Automatic annotation (TrEMBL):
This is Glycosyltransferase 2-like domain-containing protein. Keywords: Membrane, Transmembrane, Transmembrane helix. Residues 7-135 form the Glycosyltransferase 2-like domain. The chain crosses the membrane at residues 262-282, 303-320. It comes from Spirosoma utsteinense. InterPro entries: Glyco_trans_2-like, Nucleotide-diphossugar_trans.
Length: 329
């Protein structure tokens, strides 16, 4: 049996229909390369395997035996792959053209490129705006400061973005669609298995980027439905002070600590701790101004304090960069 050009790795957590739709688009549009599909299951405890193998018997199915999250499941899939290139592909994605062949050929032709991705479209086929592509954008978003150009300009001076001559080059690529070589992974290392979900692709991007360019094709795209395996299948309700789910922020704090060191991590944690009394005092002042009960509408502030408490529960392991599994229970 010949070795395939590409191994497509999909992590499943109770999303068989999404994977069916995803694979239908893969088989419909992919031409000119050979590929295998590896599905790694995170203890779905449903009939996902039966459904997928009935529709696509060639799929290679593996059970993790527990909900291992994104990094561990993908690493397991990478180790099972038989090809020279691998693609991390979310279950809630759809291809709209022969993108996989283009990416494989790019990696084959350009040894200076470490990994490649494409732009994301929403379910209505519109380009998804405001997706981070630089480390600076991500780090600036962590700080809860007054909105406005002055604040953002000051943050950009403190945390600038890298500048590249190639308009397609970025700091990191989304794990929803990330193609790289097995040989590149051997040099950069696998995904950091301390991450449960979120942030692992950002941290991996730093190490992959040390092996070559990370290319985000500006003239290529795929559909990312998003939140396919979320328990509520809905986006997080975003407010200015509660802009990330706790799991996202715990993972990103681990990334900051690992990549930028103790000082950057402590500054960010101090910022959150100081913001707890500030957001309460601000809301109490607004209530006084509007002649409302002093304790009215403090749900947002309480939610923020609860999130900071979750961050603090991971403080010592993160501070000392300890092994473990950084999963919010």
């Amino acid at each position: 049996m010949s070795v395939p050009d590409l191994s497509i790795i999909i992590v499943n957590y109770k999303t068989p229909q999404l994977i069916l739709n995803c694979l239908e688009s893969v088989y419909r549009y992919t031409d000119g390369i050979t590929f295998e599909v590896i599905v790694v299951d995170n203890q779905s405890e449903d009939n996902s395997r039966l459904i997928l193998e009935e529709a696509y018997p060639a799929v290679r199915w593996f059970d993790m035996g527990y909900n291992s999250g994104f990094a561990r499941a993908n690493n397991f899939g990478i180790r099972q792959s038989k090809s020279r290139t691998v693609l991390l592909l979310n279950s809630d994605t759809l291809l709209i053209d022969n993108l996989l062949t283009r990416c494989v050929r790019l990696l084959d032709a350009q040894p200076g490129v470490a990994a490649v991705g494409a732009r994301q479209l929403s379910r209505d086929r519109q380009l998804r705006p405001n997706l981070y592509t630089t480390f600076g954008q991500m780090r600036r978003a962590f700080y809860i400061l007054p909105a406005g150009d002055a604040t953002q300009n000051a943050l950009k001076k403190l945390i600038p973005d890298a500048q590249y001559e190639d308009p397609n080059q970025v700091d990191w690529l989304s794990g929803a669609f990330l193609m790289t070589r097995v040989s590149t992974i051997a040099k950069a290392g696998e995904l950091d298995e301390r991450f449960f979900m979120y942030g692992e692709d950002v941290e991996w991007g730093y190490r992959l980027g040390q092996q070559g360019k990370l290319i985000l094709l500006q003239d290529a795209s795929f559909v990312h439905l998003e939140y396919g395996s979320s328990s509520d299948n809905q986006q997080h309700v975003v407010t200015h002070i509660n802009r990330f789910k706790p799991q996202i922020q715990v993972s990103q704090l681990l990334w900051v600590r690992k990549q930028y060191g103790v000082g950057a991590y402590l500054i960010l944690m101090l910022h959150y701790l100081l913001m707890v009394p500030i957001v309460f005092v601000w809301k109490l002042a607004v209530n006084l101004r509007d002649r409302r009960p002093l304790g009215a509408d403090l749900e947002n502030q309480r939610a923020f304090a609860h999130q900071v408490g979750i961050f603090c529960s991971f403080f010592w392991p993160t501070l000392f960069n300890r092994p473990g599994f950084y999963k919010v229970r």
